[in-house]
Amino acid sequence: MALVTEQTKKYVFTTDKPENEHWTHIYGIGQKVPVSGIYRCYACGDEITSNQGDPFPPQNKSQHECQGKPVQWELIVRTQTKA
Ligand SMILES: [Zn+2]
Fold first, then answer.
1. How many angstroms does the Cα of residue 33 sit away from the middle of ligand 1?
2. What is the pTM of this model?
3. Which of these, 5, 20, 48, 66, could form a disulfide with 43 (CB 3.0-4.6 Å)?
4. How far is the CA of 83 from the centre of ligand 1 (A)?
């Protein structure tokens, strides 16, 4: 679970567009990251940060144990950039 402090929680907001595809779609290994942010593995709960346009990382069994379930990434926190 992504963490914030009492001091930093003021910078985290709930989106007014939860219907956007990047919030509702689950992404597989090697797919293109749609928006930069924190993604959570649907199978094991591990979290990663990924940049828009990069491929989602391959499964690394030593650091990412999903017990046979497929690695699928869901966006949990989107970063806000000016570009
Ligand atoms: Zn996993």
1. 16
2. 0.89
3. 66
4. 30
